[in-house]
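User: Here's a chain of 323 residues. Predict its fold as tokens.
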Amino acid sequence: MPKLKFSTKIIVLACALALCAPALVWAQPSDSLVVEPSPFDVLPDGPSSPLSSAALRESVEILCDPIFEGRATGTDGARYASGWIRDMFEDAGLMPYEENWFHEFPVRGSKGRNVVGYLPGKTGKWIVIGAYYDGLGVISGKTYPGADSNASGVAALIALAHSVRRDCGDGLIFVALDARSRDYAGARHLLAELKSGGIKPRLMISLDILGSTLAPVSKRNPRSLMALGAKPWAATLKKCAAIGQIDLYFDYYKSENFTKLFYNKIGDQTVFMKDGIPSVVFTSGITLNTNKVTDTPETLDYEALRARILAISRWLSLLSRTQ
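Assistant: Prediction complete.
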């Protein structure tokens, strides 16, 4: 059997993870955002900054601590992790959604738990920013830490809650989603809750594996970021990505077919898309560590993670202020 290029192995792995489902298409807005100079372009990278590389590493290491036992849905470890995330949301100045941080739901004989906070807006519209925190847990006595998948996304979620502008037009709902590995039960529960409260988000943003430079789209620059579903905002996002010298791509490893596969069939965003809600997925791509015991904090690139978060934060701050 011929040897495959690393990028080809990644795409084949994504294909193996997918389920069959039809492509989802809707009309999207044009890119009309204007990037102006702002103090949010550069946040301090000192030890006390919530967006420092040291703070991001600390968040990932905490979520991968053995006490959390790989954060499998329904376990004590996942509950401990949700409590820590709640504390981080509170520190970031978020308010508990419906006066409750924890939103529990049944899942296959146990309970899942989303952690939901928000920043109020002025327009009556809402943007959801989510990252799943559940992992594979302990299998055959081995703990799967899930550093990149998806402690990196949760670390980014917390940093965004700290860094996004407070003069929001749209309200921002930040959610650490549970039960991704249980048919996206956490995303389904969140959407049902929002609908029962009369909320149909204008956009869902998923932070899904963001911390590695082991599988860049191009060897030319390991600081790559894929923004699936974000072509309507391509011009603005490219300007925001330039802040951290990031190469931005709008296809999954430059493949149209695998973009449809990864974007339309894999991930929490698919729950929202099936309900007609536009979604954007930010990812640095899966690696050969994904879903393995080798997915550990020391394998991540925290300077690259910080740069990606800066770009997303800048774009989100602009996006939430537009009608």
